[in-house]
Request: fold
Amino acid sequence: MKKKLIIVVVLLLIIAAVYAFFKQQQSVGSDNSLTLFGNIDICDNNILLLTNQFISPLSVIAPDIYKFHIIDTVNVNGYHCINLAFEPRNKSDFAFGGHLYITNDNRYAVVEVLMRINKGMNLNFVKNLQIMQEFRYFDHKVWALSKDQTIVD
Reply:
């Protein structure tokens, strides 16, 4: 009797976790598709990936989490940009390594971001995860996401 009760409780916990996961994915996805990746917005403080919260390189606490280095000035999609490299201060943090390409003018807008997880990070059987996003200046009014690519191995 006690063994059956434990099995029922475990099954209810699993069902509740699966329901919560799918409910969250439906509310995050723009097309109600069930994926492991919500909308990745680098302007948010936290980025939810594979049920883990990562600190964005543009977060208000990013200087505490990341080391930043100016690499060079380059031309990206017709914009004169600063190549700003970043890496986590602590390799075990849920943080990214990569490059931000920021306009070298008074706007300091993000034109492109290339991010990846650390190779040694234990992330649910994921060996490699890369994110590439490009932004465009539309109608001389607003910067918006124009290309979004996520690669998982």
About this structure: The beta strands are 46-49, 52-55, 66-76, 79-88, 97-103, 110-116, 129-138, 142-152. The mean pLDDT is 79.
